[in-house]
């Protein structure tokens, strides 16, 4: 049995943000994650947008947390050394008769306190974004909207929490929750934890955890969305995130640049039975390609390098569920879009509540600065030279498409919350994310993982248990 | 100091180009290779069948490479291994500047009067096809599986379905079978195979592995590891036909669905690419639109036989040597090679007749299976070549040899098929 002050259920972006904000305070934190790495659930596959905050109804948690989270992003990105660009967003209107809706959205944004909103006519919009489709008759520009890498945001938060003392327990599934005199007994697939407070950041499973202890039941539906990612050659096709105005013709899909220079299209929306089903479908991918063309013309769809499905934890009440919902039990449940945008604000809010409840003092020596794996490809030649001189492994390119070196992969493996799997290396370094989709580098990354972690090649996994890549030695 | 020629890639194309350049008089040649050894993809191709045209015997890939490597060593041509080129540019002083990184030398910049692009190609991944389904372990491109089996010594799966009948997929069907895996079928979306006839016979038929033409994978199942795939027949628009789905349980899906010349570096220096081949557009000297930059092998267009890669690369090497020596000045106008019938593209796509040395090889592929069709070449509307071909297929590269005397003074050149 492990004793601690706070158990956080889930190491997605929300659990990691809560852990980071709580690690500003004295008190021991255990983050329990059923998967093998951080960012394995809803956090890993989404639109990668830091929304401006005009979409949610005024007064809702979604509106408040989104706007606050967006405000915090510049400082957070700097502290955590993660890419973030305020590229701005367009909501494009495709039907004249829906222009009043665009105005409504603008006013809702003002009510939510969103700065930098402008209504544009077709010409003004085209001047800023020449590839808008012929159907675009007006647009709402949100200057504060941004793009982020969801992996790096989650990793940054989690690693910084770990640097400041939070303990992460992977492949640790919560199996039960029992009230004890001074808190909770958290039963898991591994060790049990005795804790004063529990934070529910369990994503698509957050209702299950909540319903174990609360009278007022939640119902989270898993809603899946399919995406297509295009090669970097297509990354300049738009310079803002382009949303379509939701209306009687449907919700539309977005077209957005990514912080790494690719182009992202999606998502579709469909409720699913199996909460973790992330299949892509021919219909879904077809819909993504078809609908993305409504707002943006000439998308080079031949440049698709991969497709994926993301999950969203949609709560029946249509808002985030935040706060102490049972004695010593704190919910961050039903966190769907704009969850990524709201994560740091949710962390800040819950950490303050918990610190007050448990009477935790602020740490004197909290270290807010985290450094990610260096990205040699993005460095000027002189700096790159200096890095390679210091550590020649930075000169040995392993992933040719993304130009990721052995040194960067070693940093990812040996860093705080180091990578243990191919996906772990991929998310920390981008090795395998390029146009060949790991065809060339995966055997070499597997070798590095095996060498550095003293494993046999047969033990190297893509991600979870059971995803081993090679099965046996050859006969020779 | 400027090298005469820098060669990017030490696979079959780079090696043959280097040797030929030296024999044509280039003194200062440097080969840059990203892998630990010279030889390129041949090192993992341990099956035989290489070199029938060049050496009149059947060699394995490593044996074929070894002959060229020996030649490079004999000619004392320097090379850098484990060195990845990260940028190509045109310095103001002319020629080509190459930026490369390696563990041993750090970040280095190399200048040369001429460059030969010989970076090879990569496999099309799953994402490029948008195959629906889950995203488990056990989906490999055929070349990746080949490396795991032949170089690392590990078997990636026991029950295998292969999508695509490219040559690597066919070779791997046999290889996996020999290693004790069960290859259940090879599905090919086109009504014809993308691979060589001899590979279909020797790798599938001889082992009783069914080839399902006009079929594709419409679903992949399994959460952590592949548990099965669904295959369906496709119509003439290559769309799956509902009701034709067939389920195969398997732990591995190999993809052999096409190769893409790797021209990211070429684009950095402004090389113009053909939308058909994804390789550079070159003239009769295999020179790109960027003066002094030549291309050969799979970076130029995807080949079936390494023998032709070596032959083509030697031509690029010779011409690079001439260029570096300043003996390749413009001698006349380049005329475009037009295509007709089922001819999809030609390499070269421009010809300057004055620069042709006696005769010119023109390589191309056709877009469909054809029986008893003719390959015809017209110069200014006049037939200069007609060759009856009993069988032509998209999976087999074709070539014709044009005589310089037929090309001189010509304004319009057409290569086509006639049925």
Automatic annotation (TrEMBL), chain A:
InterPro entries named in the record: BFD-like_2Fe2S-bd_dom, BFD-like_2Fe2S-bd_dom_sf, FAD-dep_OxRdtase, FAD/NAD-bd_sf, G3P_Oxidase/Oxidoreductase
CDD domains tied to this protein: GlpA-like_Fer2_BFD-like (cd19946)
Q: Name one Pfam family in it.
A: Fer2_BFD
SUPFAM superfamilies the record matches: FAD/NAD(P)-binding domain
Q: Which segments constitute the FAD dependent oxidoreductase domain? A: 5-353
Residue ranges occupied by any BFD-like [2Fe-2S]-binding domain in the UniProt entry? 397-451
Q: PANTHER family given for it? A: GLYCEROL 3-PHOSPHATE OXIDASE, GLYCEROL-3-PHOSPHATE DEHYDROGENASE
Q: What is this protein called?
A: NAD(P)/FAD-dependent oxidoreductase
Q: Whose protein is this, by species?
A: Neglectibacter timonensis
UniProtKB/TrEMBL annotation, chain B:
Q: Which controlled-vocabulary keywords does the entry list?
A: Oxidoreductase
Q: Which organism does this sequence originate in? A: Neglectibacter timonensis
What this protein is called in its record is: NAD(P)/FAD-dependent oxidoreductase
Q: Matching Pfam families, A to Z?
A: Pyr_redox_2
Q: Where is the FAD/NAD(P)-binding domain?
A: 3-307
Q: Does the keyword Oxidoreductase apply?
A: yes
